Each structure stands twice: as C-alpha cells, then as structure tokens.
Amino acid sequence: MKKLSKFQKKTLLVFIFANLILLTVSALYAHIIAEAGGKDIVGCTMKRLFFIYCPGCGGSRSLLQLFRLDFLSAFKLYPPMAVLLFFLIDIEVRALLSLVKDEPRYLVSFKLSSLLIIPAVLLLHFFIRNLLLVELGIDPIGDLQFFYNA
Fold first, then answer.
1. Interior CA angle at 114 toward 63 and 9, to 5°?
2. pTM exceeding 0.90
3. Each residue's pLDDT tens digit in the chain (150 positions)?
4. What does the alpha-carbon distance between residue 102 and residue 76 come to, in Å, rounded to a whole number?
5. CA 15 to CA 92: how far, in whole Å?
6. Which of 85, 93, 112, 142 has the least CB density, counted as fewest CB within 10 Å?
7. What is the C-alpha separation between 129 and 138, in angstroms, rounded?
C-alpha cells in the first residue's frame, strides 16, 4: 500500500483545520443572527435591488436552524444545504480516514467532477425559487411577500 507523503499529510491537516475554522465562523455567524432575532444582518443586494432571491438567500438562516437541530426548517429555508452538507461531510470523512490510516486511497476514490453538482444544484434552486416567487407568489422565506402579494 502506498503511504501518504509528508506534503499530503500537511495538506490534509490544513484542509481539516480550515474546515474547523469555517465551522466555527459559521456557528458564530448563526449565533449573531439568533441574537438579532433571526433577521438578515448583511442584507442581500439582489433582493434589495431586483426583488428576487440570489442563489444563497436563506442559507444563513438555514444554518441557524441546523445549529438548533431543526432540520425540517433548515431544509425549507434553503434546500441546497442538504447537498452542501453531504459533500462537506463526505470530503471531511475521506480526509480523516486518509490521515488516520495513512493511505491516499480514500481521497483518490473521490471524483472532483462530482463537485460540479454543487453549482448545478444552486443554480437550479435559484431558478425554481424565483420562478415560483414571480409567477405564483410562493415565498417560503417570506422576505418578498410584501412585493409579490401586495
């Protein structure tokens, strides 16, 4: 069996550490949103200017619901979160297995082309959500009801 090189080990450690930082920052941001009463702090320029949702609208509130372990609300607010979490968990587990077992085969079996699913899902969600909003007035998040249901 082929062993991991020192460079590969360092790269995996940096990757795992970077994801832990990302998770920590996400948790802090979710906490800040919770303290603000669930309101969108930064605001979405696309929503403010064009009265449609961007591909990421609802993501931070969905993350807050995930930290509260309310999976149904998280999925309702932002369905692509399930796909994003699946890929993040899959890559993390593969990186940890490769590091612990000192074998690169766990990462080699992952196809980078499968990451193209993420932007495809985000764009599909963007078009479907805005089509339902503009044509039928269906707004699961509720931020633009004032414009389309008035």
1. 80
2. no
3. 678 888 888 888 888 888 888 888 877 877 777 777 766 666 778 888 888 998 988 887 888 888 888 989 888 889 998 888 888 888 888 888 888 888 877 777 667 777 788 889 999 999 999 999 999 888 888 888 788 775
4. 40
5. 9
6. 112
7. 8
